[in-house]
Amino acid sequence: MTNAWDERKKALEEEYFHKKEKEAIAKMKQSSCLGRCPKCGEILEPKTIHEVPLDQCPNCDGIWLGQNDLRLLAQNDHHSWFERWFCKPK
Q1: How many whole angstroms separate alpha carbon 48 and alpha carbon 37?
Q2: How far is CA 22 from the centre of its chain?
Q3: How many whole angstroms separate alpha carbon 41 and alpha carbon 23?
Q4: Dihedral Cα 72, 35, 29, 49, nearest 10 deg
Q5: Which of the residues in the chain have pLDDT under 70?
Q6: Where are the domains of the chain?
Q7: Quick one: pLDDT at residue 73?
Q8: What is the CA angle 15-19-22, rounded to 5?
Q9: Residue from 46, 41, 82, 88 nearest 63 by CA
Q10: Phi, psi of 13 (to 5 degrees)
Q11: What pairing do the DSSP bridges indicate for beta strands 63-64 and 52-56?
Q12: Cα 12–Cα 18–Cα 20 angle in degrees, nearest 5
């Protein structure tokens, strides 16, 4: 049987490390390479496809989507590539 003090000590320790991890993640987000290609580190160039703003890497030609960009692309162009990729044929 465990002691209540030991359980409290363990809970406080877990809370401490959880707080430290959240702080580390927040710090990484602030110092991340915003505006740079996640693959090669080159500065991204803004590009618009079907009225959706995207970022393209001039070095590796990667196209990087923001949080809502895929949804916007699907709404603007749902009868072509999106339908072929994600909809099953009837």
Answers
A1: 17
A2: 16
A3: 24
A4: 10
A5: 1-2, 30-33, 76-90
A6: 1-32, 35-90
A7: 74
A8: 140
A9: 46
A10: -65, -45
A11: antiparallel
A12: 105
3 state DSSP class of 90: coil
Which parts of 1-90 are beta strand (E)? 45-49, 52-56, 63-64
The structure tokens listed for 6 are 């030991």
Tokens of 34: 């915003």
Which single residue is written with the structure tokens 């915003």? 34
For residue 14, how many other CB atoms are within 10 A of its CB? 10
Q: Which of 40, 88, 31 is nearest to 64 (CA)?
A: 40
CA-CA distance, 37 to 53, in Å (whole number)?
A: 16
Q: Which residue type, as a one-letter code, is found at position 3?
A: N
The answer to whether 50 touches 77, Cβ cutoff 8 Å, is yes
65, 44, 39: which is closest to 54 by C-alpha? 65
